[in-house]
Amino acid sequence: MSLLSVCHTTVYRYHRPVTFGEHRLMFRPRDSHDIRLVDTALTISPAAEIRWMHDVFSNSITIASFQEAASELRFESRIVIDHYGLSYPDFPIEPYAQTYPFSYPAEDIADLGRSVERHYPDPERKVDAWVKRFLDNGGPVGTQDLLQRINTAVQAEFGYERRYAFGVQTPVETLERGSGTCRDLALFMMGAVRALGFAARFVSGYLYDPATEIGGAADTDLKGGGDTHAWVQVYLPGAGWVEFDPTNGQVGGANLIRVAVAREPFQALPLQGSYYGAAEDFVEMTVDVEVTKPEEG
Fold it and tell me: Is the pLDDT of residue 46 over 70?
């Protein structure tokens, strides 16, 4: 168990005061057996009226409504959690699913169906060709080993970049460019494993990197710290939804703080909303995320 503190600040700046439409926030992790929420605080400026809801995936959503105009809009979320994620766990996969290929049970398919479907075109089957090289000439292969090799290959073969523009690259676009943000690499891995028939879903949250702290391990070389992070869950019978972080080639949730899960990235945006004014009124958006271990005592 690790006690972790997260401070997530997003600021929008404008040349002159503008008015704001509703904003939708996904900042609050869901309590689970591996994440227990200890404390939480949300500060919004200018003042907002807030309400809470759960989306179709049971993610916790904050809706903020504004009355005041302002030239700066600031959201600051602070949370403290008990975190029980494991590094490179040995998955307790059901015997029938320990070797690929396998089929999900009929009772699971009804719920997993849309997470198995591919949602982005690949007319030349480029993603299929990329992932099928891990199948050892079509013969049976260990399920856990297969997924770990795919995850490691994404980290090794694709460059990582930061990009704050709205949207994600399709799996084919990421393959052709050879680089992407964490959300692009997560979506690429989702497309790759879905091409093999695995159920996969998109995860948004935070990354704890010990190297960012004073005296931390400087050789971690993790990518995605200081910002929101994205990764993948793959459903394995017996093990459930297993975390894969293709940006860093890691398996398991030891460094990952899960906030939202969804079928597609657009359903797990950390923050979205609108303002009323001219397009040229907008100056910039900045995002800062600090994940630390609170001092004991």
Answer: yes
The Cα–Cα gap between 201 and 262 comes to 6
pLDDT in tens, 273-284: 999 999 999 999
**Structure tokens, 274:** 């609108």
Contacts of 118 (CB under 8 A, 6+ apart): 191, 194, 195
Please give the Cα distance from 268 to 111 (Å, whole number).
19
| Contact assessment for residue 58 and residue 30, using Cβ atoms and an 8 Å cutoff | yes
* Coil, helix or strand at residue 268: helix
Give Cβ neighbours of residue 210 (< 8 Å, ≥ 6 apart): 216, 217, 220
Pairing of strands 200-207, 70-83: unpaired
In the block, tokens 């900045």 appear at 286
Q: What share of the chain is helix, strand, coil (3-state, %, to 5)?
A: 25, 40, 35
CB 99 within 8 A of CB 143: yes
pTM: 0.93
Tens digit of pLDDT for each residue in 205-235?
A: 999 988 776 555 445 678 988 889 999 999 9
The Cα–Cα gap between 205 and 34 comes to: 14
How far apart CA 202 and CA 114 sit, in angstroms, is 12
Q: Answer left, alpha or beta for residue 247, where phi above 0 means left and psi between -120 and 50 means alpha.
A: alpha
- Confidence class of residue 186 from pLDDT cuts 50, 70 and 90? very high
Start-end of H helices in 44-181: 106-116, 126-132, 143-157, 171-177
Q: Which residue has the tokens 């480029």?
A: 126
Burial of 280 from C-beta contacts in 10 A (0-12 / 13-18 / 19+)? exposed
Bridge partner list, 142: 99
